[in-house]
Design goal:
Elements: H1 3-27, H2 29-35, E1 36-37, H3 51-64, E2 67-74, H4 77-91, E3 96-99, H5 105-112, H6 122-127, H7 132-143, H8 161-168, E4 176-178, E5 181-186, E6 189-198, H9 205-225, E7 230-234, H10 236-269, H11 276-297, E8 301-302, H12 303-310, H13 313-316, H14 318-326, H15 334-357, H16 365-392, H17 401-411, H18 418-438, H19 453-466, E9 473-479, H20 482-501, E10 507-509, H21 518-527, H22 534-544, H23 548-555, H24 563-568, E11 579-583, E12 586-594, H25 599-606, E13 613-617, H26 618-652, H27 656-677, H28 683-705, H29 710-729, H30 736-755
Parallel strand pairs: 1-8
Antiparallel strand pairs: 2-6, 2-7, 3-6, 4-5, 5-6, 9-12, 9-13, 10-12, 11-12
Length: 775
């Protein structure tokens, strides 16, 4: 097989790969749409060293992600009821199911009535020190009361201890049933509480749109009837819907903006439209194959990966623009042009691809997806040029009006000697030094989340009204056995009771409140022996007129409540998510906190040190992970510069610094600019500098491989402008993480592009391609 046939076969094979990838995406578009993920938590790192923490986070996610809560409130109860009716009627047509309160007091009463002697409030536990006469008087007082707190007959709870314990559960929820509705009072308003469970997934794009749009329409109708009504919403599905809508808008804006800018640039720089098909084919190939491989590798693909991928257009087109720009006016064949530029293209592609793959060095699943998408797209675009350019490129290209002007302008691009560069750096060093001194290191995950402010405000309002616990700050309690966990949890709750009295927190939710340890149950049984004494019971029976059989039944010690019995009962539903059960190291549970606000109070709670008890602040933990990886990647960046310098020295020797300096100077200047603007140094900033190293090296390689060719300056300028068009548009993203990335790219790539031609090695202006007799 001749060389021509081999290349023709490769071209056909690559076309087949493109068609199969595009066909697979089209045929499976419905299934792939379901694989799209809008869960912001999916972008966060998993705690591989703490399986208990991961189990806890998974447990909480399962508990809250399917819930939707709506509060309709007014100072007028009637107005609140009418608004609630309007909302209920509209929500009834959505894929949600109405729910009542998490626990039913009647069900709880019937279950725990089997274990009355082991359930005591702290006040009744203290009262056990009183005499039999005290308890006799208390029992008689309960006998003649009009209402029993427990809802049981007097003979089933004569001393009222069980009724008091049941009544104490009231502080677990501020919601109160009244007239067939659930009510809560907050800030002088009466709120009707509407609770729903999603029938589908909170991260299904279809369900998100239906629920979010349906709820918005219902709220609009309720407010049309009464403009003064107060409506609050909370639910993961609402945040996911807003994130998905925002991602779709940004994909359209960034993708379409980049594409239109590139098309316009190509039409103005090159005469006619002949350069456009190969440019478009390069973009299409890179995007399609990157999409196909990413969806094939990952079971879930995050929407932000696609937003980031939309900006890949400006990078995938680089190689096509480089080849077309250097071909302007050339009278040699496309194959010879590619052969001449191939070493530079190969080195540049390797550096850029490796720079993107550095994103995989982080523990963030979302960044790993972006790395695969970007590296695949760049490699696919380069292969497209390698295989198809010699066969599809126009035989001759002439510059258009903008191209002619740019060639004349770039012919006069200044070149600085090493001494001039050193003097220039000394002159700007005070500005750079001051900016670097002002630069702060701060990795706060909350500053990168991009959560909808209005939804978060309403969610906080619902959390305060309902007394909902914080999902981000809690305690883990671990022990070798379930009994040890309950005992350690009881010790923790004693400490929290003291802090609650000081106003550090509003309350807490703990399994031990519903399920005392066996040791605690036995202790209470021993202390409550007085309440089973024959003398006391006999005296009460004689006074009330009960048979001796009642005395005999009350003398029997009740059974102990075990974890297995509790978990098997519906009575455990309100707190079942707090019990993590068996873990690789034993057993574990969570204690969640309510009414916690302020970093100072969180710091006080973090200082609680008890055996088997660990404090966890998820936001702080993730911020710590960001900081650690920022420092590690900074070392990787320094090592990458050192390794790149060695590699470049082997090829360019004394001119290696000219290739490396644009990236280095642009990186330092970007950090200084961030310092002056008050933008903190974050993990994403360091990642951007890694990508900048790859891009800046590309510019330096092309310029110094062909320092006397003005068309190379045009080529890297077009590539830089396209990159700035795509990645630079990320600066306007409403996702802070992507916006930071975009700002750093604008600064870094822009500076590297402007600096690289100024540092080209000395060489006369010589055209890269001369007319060839065989052309």
């Amino acid at each position: 097989m001749t060389e021509t046939r081999i290349w023709r076969a490769l071209a056909l094979f690559w076309l087949l790969v493109l068609l199969l990838s595009a066909g697979w995406l089209v045929l499976n578009r419905a299934e792939l749409a379901r694989k799209l993920d809008t869960d912001l938590f999916a972008l966060l790192p998993k705690n591989e060293h703490d399986p208990v923490a991961e189990q806890a986070m998974a447990s909480m996610a399962r508990t809250i992600e399917g819930k939707l809560i709506v509060l309709a409130g007014s100072t007028d109860r009637g107005a609140a009821e009418r608004a609630a009716d309007t909302l209920s009627a509209a929500l009834g047509t959505l894929p949600v199911t109405a729910q009542q309160q998490e626990f039913d007091l009647a069900s709880l009463r019937d279950f725990y009535a089997q274990y009355p002697g082991v359930l005591l409030t702290p006040a009744d536990d203290q009262a056990l020190q009183q005499s039999a006469q005290y308890w006799y008087g208390r029992a008689l007082q309960n006998a003649y009361a009009t209402v029993a707190p427990s809802g049981l007959a007097w003979q089933d709870d004569p001393f009222g201890t069980y009724g008091n314990w049941l009544a104490g559960l009231g502080d677990l929820s501020r919601v109160r049933p009244d007239g067939g509705r659930l009510w809560v009072e907050q800030d002088g308003k009466h709120y009707v509480v509407l609770m729903y469970a999603l029938r589908g997934s909170a991260f299904s794009l279809k369900d998100q749109q239906i629920v979010a749009h349906g709820l918005d329409a219902a709220i609009a109708r309720a407010r049309a009837d009464d403009a003064g009504i107060s409506i609050l919403r909370a639910g993961v599905v609402l945040h996911a819907a807003r994130a998905a809508a925002q991602a779709e808008r940004e994909m359209s804006t960034i993708g379409l903006g980049s594409l239109l800018g590139i098309v316009l640039l190509v039409l103005l720089v090159f005469r006619g439209w002949r350069a456009l098909p190969l440019v478009a084919l390069s973009i299409l190939t890179g995007t399609v194959i990157a999409l196909a491989l990413t969806f094939a590798i990952y079971p879930r693909v995050h929407m932000l990966t696609l937003v980031f991928g939309a900006s890949l257009i400006g990078v995938a087109v680089d190689y096509s623009l480089l080849l077309h720009s250097t071909s302007l006016g050339a009278q040699v064949s496309a194959g010879r042009r590619l052969e001449r530029l191939l070493p530079s293209l190969l080195i540049a592609t390797v550096f850029t691809t490796l720079a993107y793959l550095c994103l995989m060095l982080t523990p963030f699943p979302g960044l790993s997806q972006m790395a695969v998408f970007a590296a695949t797209g760049i490699a696919a675009a380069w292969l497209s040029e390698l295989i198809w350019y010699p066969r599809l490129a126009p035989a001759r290209l002439e510059p258009g009006p903008l191209g002619q002007w740019l060639l004349r302008a770039f012919a006069g691009w200044p070149r600085f000697s090493g001494r001039a560069v050193l003097i220039g750096l000394l002159l700007v060093s005070p500005l750079l030094t001051a900016g670097l001194y002002k630069l702060e290191r701060r990795d706060d995950i909350r500053a990168l989340a991009g959560v909808d402010a209005q939804l978060m405000h309403e969610q906080i309002g619902i959390g305060k009204a309902l007394g909902m616990p914080s999902p981000a700050q809690l305690y883990f309690v671990e022990g070798p056995t379930a009994e040890a966990v309950l005992e350690r949890e009881a010790a923790l709750t004693h400490a929290l009771d003291a802090l609650k009295a000081q106003g550090v927190l509003g309350g807490y939710q703990a399994v031990s409140r519903w399920l005392p340890s066996s040791a605690e149950q036995q202790r209470r049984l021993a202390r409550s022996q007085l309440l089973r004494s024959p003398a006391l019971l006999g005296k009460l029976a004689e006074e009330i007129g009960l048979p001796p059989s009642w005395v005999a039944s009350r003398q029997q010690a009740p059974a102990l409540l075990t974890p297995a019995q509790w978990l098997a009962s519906p009575a455990s539903l309100p707190a079942r998510h707090l019990w993590l059960g068996q873990t690789p190291h034993g057993y574990a549970s969570m204690v969640m906190l309510t009414g916690l606000s302020g970093a100072e109070n969180a710091g006080i709670l973090a200082k609680v040190k008890l055996p088997g008890v660990r404090w966890m602040d998820k936001s702080q933990e993730i911020s710590g992970v960001l900081g650690r990886y920022r420092d590690r990647l900074a070392l990787v960046l320094l090592a990458a510069y050192a390794l790149t310098a060695i590699i470049l020295w082997r090829r360019y020797r004394k001119h290696a610094w000219r290739v490396l300096a644009p990236s280095l100077i642009a990186s330092v200047a970007t950090l200084a600019l961030f310092g002056w603007l008050g933008i903190p140094l974050q993990l994403l900033t360091v990642l951007t500098l890694l990508l900048l190293l790859g891009m800046g090296i590309d510019y330096g390689i092309f310029i110094n491989e062909h320092p006397g060719e003005v068309r190379i300056r045009l080529a890297i300028s077009l590539a830089a402008i396209c990159t700035l068009l795509s990645f630079g548009l990320l600066a306007f993203s409403h996702t802070p993480a992507l916006a930071t990335f975009g700002i750093a790219t604008l600064s870094g790539v822009g500076l590297a592009w402007l600096i690289a031609p100024c540092l080209r090695r000395p060489s006369p202006d010589i055209a890269l391609f001369q007319p060839h007799p065989s052309a």
